[in-house]
Design goal:
Distance between the termini: 15 Å
Shape: globular
Number of strands: 5
Strand content: under 5%
Order of helices and strands: HHEEHHEEEHHHHHHHHHH
Number of helices: 14
Structural class: mainly alpha
Strand order of the largest sheet: 3-4-5
Helix content: 55-70%
Largest sheet: 3 strands, antiparallel
């Protein structure tokens, strides 16, 4: 009972409070994105997101009830289950928007590529939990991590889901650097990646190539590949300082803005709440990342530090790329904004990350 009280006293309420605040703003944004002016009501997506968030709270509490030191017992089995689900998607997966990404489980639809993010972090944390060599890891020392990332990234690309594959690779690189990769080896890795870019270009779908070309020149195809980013920039810019007000975003109301409840939810938010609202939202994300960095710094062991850093990297890369994509600073690659964009699999997987962050934080005083 003493340990239970001590764990409860060190519960990190800041992480939970910030996560709940972002999720609440997300529910409001999804409500607005699906609001019908003629019927004066929204669709069912906002209510579904509430259900997903409540399920995410349950999953988060489950993720912090066990001691994270036992995570190495099921790290690889969980990874194997996610890998199997990605293979299953290729056989019986549901198709939507030209991609085959979902498994219909009857009572809900699962997107395994979203679950793959925390699963990859957990598996990498198991590998890197022991002290690195004195001179750091070399590329030939990392055969296991490369075997972990390769099938996840390839199976995600096949769906195709370029955005999630990019996030998986960036999270992998972040954790490997945290794990102790030598700088020289890292430079070799970057050089190899740059050399492979021309080859990777030929494996992209035609619409993916068009998105990259229209990123360089959106007016190249304003009614086709460039439409998303042009309308998104108009929505963000038209919000000005204070925004147009809740339910009053014209780009959203008149259906000019595509994917307004998923990848471009930030554009809906920016149009209605303006620059000030964006500062508050991004401030919440920044606060979450600062607190997560504090968890990394205060972790009692290497396993906890790498686990927390991996979860932090998922939030960091998704927030950075999504906001850059919506504002026209990066090509459109289809990455949701954590806790804000609509999506059950994304919400639950992000809440798993929140739970593991709190898990590491509250156990830094136990022995």
């Amino acid at each position: 009972m003493l340990i239970d009280r001590r764990l409860a006293s060190h519960f990190d309420w800041t992480i939970l409070a910030v996560s709940v605040a972002v999720a609440a703003l997300g529910i409001l944004t999804i409500y607005s994105a699906n609001y019908s002016v003629t019927e004066h009501r929204s669709g069912a997506l906002a209510w579904k997101q509430i259900y997903w968030f409540l399920l995410g709270i349950v999953v988060m509490l489950s993720a912090l009830t066990f001691d994270y030191h036992h995570i190495d017992r099921f790290a690889y089995p969980v990874y194997g289950a996610v890998l199997a689900s990605l293979l299953l998607v290729l056989v019986i997966g549901s198709v939507g928007g030209g991609s085959q990404r979902w498994l219909n489980l009857g009572f809900f639809t699962l997107q395994p590529s979203e679950v793959a993010k925390p699963a990859l972090v957990v598996a990498l944390a198991k590998f890197f939990q022991y002290d690195e060599p004195l001179d750091g890891y070399r590329l030939r020392d990392l055969s296991v991590p490369f075997l972990l990332i390769a099938p996840l990234a390839l199976l995600t690309l096949v769906q195709p889901d370029l955005g999630t594959a990019v996030i998986l690779v960036l999270v992998f690189i972040s954790v490997v650097l945290m794990g102790g990769l030598r700088i020289r080896s890292f430079l070799y890795l970057v050089a190899t990646g740059l050399a492979l870019l021309p080859i990777a270009w030929h494996f992209l779908k035609s619409y993916q190539r068009d998105r990259i070309l229209t990123f360089l020149n959106p007016d190249l195809d304003p009614l086709g590949a460039g439409y998303h980013i042009i309308q998104s920039k108009i929505a963000v810019g038209s919000g000005r300082f204070l925004g147009k007000g809740f339910l009053n975003g014209t780009q959203n109301r008149l259906d000019f803005l595509p994917a307004q409840h998923t990848d471009f939810a930030f554009a809906v938010f920016a149009e209605e709440w303006g620059f000030l609202g964006c500062v508050i939202l991004l401030g919440l994300y920044f606060a979450l990342m600062v607190v997560a960095l504090r968890v990394v710094a205060r972790a009692k062991d290497r396993l906890g530090a790498i686990l927390a850093f991996g979860m932090l990297s998922i939030f960091f890369w998704q927030v950075g790329i999504n906001t850059a994509m919506v504002t026209g600073m990066m090509p459109v690659v289809g990455i949701p904004l954590p806790l804000l964009s609509y999506g059950g699999s994304s919400m639950v997987s992000m809440m798993v990350g929140v739970g593991l962050l709190i898990n590491v934080s509250m156990r830094r005083f136990t022995f």
